[in-house]
Amino acid sequence: MTTPAAAGLTMPPEWAPHERTLMAWPCRRELWGGQLSAAKGESAGVANAIAAFEPVTMVARDVADAAEARAALDGNVEVVELAVDDSWLRDSGPIFVVDHVIEPSVRVGVHFGFNAWGGKFEGYESDQAIGGMLARRAGAEVVRAPLVLEGGSIAVDGTGTLLTTEQCLLHPNRNPALGRDEIEQHLKDYLGVSRVVWLGQGLLEDKDTDGHVDLIAAFTKPGTVLLQRAAPDNPNHDNMAHNREVALAAGLEVIDFDPVAYAEVDGEQVVASYMNFYVGDRFVIVPTAGQPDLDTEALARIRDAFEGFKEVIGVPGVVHAFGGGGPHCITQQVPALAR
């Protein structure tokens, strides 16, 4: 195979039916510190919520972590021991492309390069390899893409449009030798999209990922994006307003999303983005901040954005936010094949 696009393959939207969800048990102590146990608890909550709808595979790095995970997880969650550096499989795991969005019969795992978000952590060799390992475990051919890319930096609508941010994909700590046009062509070649919409900046508080799009935007159906908005007194206001202008200029329908929560974890204020939710064909798993009024508003707005067609489930998410993400960042879908 030359490239997936040349073979007629494309990345399906997140809401297309899944065969299963891939996750990993948190383990990087230098990231989580005293919150490691709480991070495991939140990951178990996400996995068990998803497992009510579809199978989940949880990667654990060793025997002890595997035993701990099994004790916390429901029976519909498979635990496998594989070398991994931490739990962000959206970014280090494989991205699957298929030959048809509705009833695919071919599934290929695209293995992008991974450099720990521009070298922000030392020791990421296992995460560099885990994408190919999990793709092969799913029975997929593996194609290596000549691009450092995290899955949380992109979103697709299933009809050819990919959404990303200039802040992340053009950051010199990812692909310094590649220009915008070259990066865009790689996205088209390896994910089968026909156009790339470049938002500007992510959240100012998003220091770890350099502005991942999955903290500020998500497609809810082809051509429609739920987009974070910020109040005039919020430092993100101008950047979010600019992103809205870009999305509208690209012909996308925009649903404004206002709720944003801030919480204190381990003495640090973190932004808890409700936008970092994970979508299946029947569910949406949304991180909550333990702030009843805001949580209720966020869940209702997300339910409305999906027109009530999915069950919207809130799960605790402030510790994951402290680590730099949420349910979307710790999951990666395996598209279902036609039976």
Textual characterization of the structure:
The chain is of the alpha/beta class. It has one domain (18-335): L-arginine/glycine Amidinotransferase, Chain A (5-stranded Propeller). The protein has helices at residues 29-32, 36-51, 63-72, 89-92, 116-119, 125-137, 166-169, 180-191, 237-249, 292-305, 318-323, and strands at 18-24, 56-60, 77-81, 95-98, 107-113, 141-148, 155-156, 161-165, 195-199, 217-221, 224-228, 253-257, 261-265, 268-272, 278-279, 283-288, 311-316, 332-335. It has a four-stranded mixed sheet. A hairpin with a 2-residue loop joins strand 10 and strand 11 (224-228). The two termini are 24 Å apart.
Care to give the gist of this entry?
This protein is α/β, with parallel strands linked by helices and 339 residues long. The chain has 11 helices and 18 strands.
